[in-house]
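User: Show me an example of a complex going from sequences to structure tokens.

Assistant: Sure. Here are the input components:
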Amino acid sequence: MTIKISAEAFDPYQKIQAYQNTRIANIGTVGATSIFIGTMRDFNEGAAVKGMTLEYYPGMTEKQLEMCVNEAQQKWQLIDSLVIHRVGDILPNESIVLVATWSSHRGDAFDASRYIMEALKSKAPFWKKELLVTENERWVANNTNGYKPR
Amino acid sequence: MSIKVRYFANLKESVGRSEDDLIFTGILTVNEVWNQANPGKSLPDNILAAVNMEYVEFGKIVKHGDEVAFFPPVTGG
């Protein structure tokens, strides 16, 4: 399990490739990899957004992320997992979060990555403050349910 | 006895500071920590609390050296 907080922009595809090369490539039991990447949108709740600041609680955030991954490891058969979450000033199109899970079978990989992502969103202390195109700032009050409103 | 109190996000902005060092005597719950650190200011709705970086209920009793944190619902990911 690897958990990182990144104060700088990161390329999730490079991170996956590097982790794959150094930690996973020679593990013969790996049969499934599930990857989720969360990216900053340029709109939210009806407004155009041009930037965002992500605040966190150093120490508690890492601890809660670790608990989320530990819970997933207890529920599903995982070989390894990688979580990277951005903090600080973020621009649209930049990655906010990467969750990757490796397992022998797809069900474990899919379900565990979804679980880690949902647990992270409700438990890990991060807070988003959006800078709108109008120059107004606003704190994001709640997470959405993860689906486009219908 | 003393504890550190921390505030995050919009709660930090509304109380106007990021932390307090609170000196106290006797037995204190998390809810009473808020009241002593913020006299006359009621705890906003939906605020969460943590002691030593673990989520707690507001009736949790604190002890010397604890770090108590108050913050709004989390919005990461």
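The lines above are the inputs; the final block is the predicted structure for all two components together. Chain A touches chain B at residues 38, 54-57, 59-60, 63-64, 85, 96-97, 117, 120-129, 139-143 (CB under 8 Å).
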